[in-house]
Design goal:
This protein has 46 residues and is an all-alpha fold. The protein has one helix at 2-45.
């Protein structure tokens, strides 16, 4: 019983941590892709 309630308390924090990590990685990936596309476009124009 004690272990179950402990897991129940930790589950939302664990899920929030995973979500935050996912959003963080996605943001970095998006920025990286954007920079890459921007550099490619600049190279084509030059």
């Amino acid at each position: 019983m004690c272990e179950k309630s402990g897991a129940w308390v930790h589950a939302p924090f664990f899920r929030w941590g995973l979500t935050a990590k996912y959003l963080y990685n996605r943001t970095i990936l998006h920025k990286f892709t954007f920079c890459k596309c921007y550099a490619d476009r600049k190279r084509r124009l030059a």
